[in-house]
Amino acid sequence: MSLGDYTLTFPIWVEFGNGSSENIGSIVESQSWEKALIVTDQGILDAGLVDGIETSLAAEGIEYATYDGVEPNPTVGMVNEATELLEKEGCDFIVSVGGGSSIDVGKGASLMATNPGEIADYEVTSAEEVLEEPIENHPLPLVTVPTTAGTGSEVDYWAVITDEEREFKMALGQSPQYPGGPYLGAEISLVDPALTETLPPRQTAATGFDAFSHALENHVSSARPPLVEPLTKHVMGLVSEHLPAAYEDGEMAAREQMMFGSHVAGICENFAGFGAIHSLAETTGGMYPEIPHGEAIAAYTPAVMRYNIEAVPGRYAEVAEAMGVDVSGVSDEEAAREAVDA
């Protein structure tokens, strides 16, 4: 049986490890960028998670302004505000610090800083629309610094922004369509597990389940290239093993494993596909923005798994195995149902 064709393109510089976020000054200085717009939320500022980043930038003589208006399930209005401040302050790159919401607003502002029209003009609803290359100009350089172990947005080519008028979450995204082509994503990602140390248990659980769901949906996707399979299996195992400890005790060893799992799942998102779990959760978040994304994901996952088992029982049996379930001596269908229970 043929493995099928795939294209791998990953033009992002990644540094992973405790304290890596404080390397930002020297890395940015190497690029000759001059002034940053830091995109974040007030809670991140209050927790002091931006302090080391600001110190590192200042040490290299790099100026910065800050947009702190990000809220969960980010909106077109937030992207417009960030873009306006960027232009007013004369910033030539963006640093997004936070969870998926801050990173998505940063992506939106980087896109609109160099491309015409409105953010809704870049909505994509199918792979065919992505191939049409709606993003013609390279977005402004973006540095991502995640503070949750969940979305993987720091290394993917996608963003989700709520159109307030339609109460609808738009998907924006584009991978490089040719070598060196424009894409929606970071040039540099600093993945620092230490920044998740103060994440409260409920957010740890919600974002951690989101990371698991990325690996799950990528693993069972019909668009999954063979490259992704061992990675998604590994992530499902990591999250199953380490999320309970990260939630219950907040221990750094578990948080580091969770950040790595989330990060690898984010890479997989660029090459596989999502399904009904994310479609339902994004629709829900567009209508009810007060519902955390990861909690909506968790609510829909068992039902969607049961529905899909009939089509690909073997892949869901692999999910059970990855989660550490003993599936010896049982059929794929039985193993798949045990994955739902797990």
UniProtKB/TrEMBL annotation:
Alcohol dehydrogenase iron-type/glycerol dehydrogenase GldA domain ranges (all copies): 14-179
Keywords per UniProt: NAD, Oxidoreductase
Pfam families given in the database record: ADH_Fe_C (PF25137), Fe-ADH (PF00465)
Domain of life: Archaea
Domain Fe-containing alcohol dehydrogenase-like C-terminal stretches: 204-342
Record keyword Mitochondrion present: no
GO MF annotations in UniProt: alcohol dehydrogenase (NAD+) activity; metal ion binding
InterPro entries documented for this protein: ADH_Fe/GldA, ADH_Fe_C, ADH_Fe_CS, Alcohol_dehydrogenase_Fe
Family the UniProt entry places it in: Belongs to the iron-containing alcohol dehydrogenase family.
Protein name per UniProt: Iron-containing alcohol dehydrogenase
Organism this protein belongs to: Natrinema versiforme JCM 10478
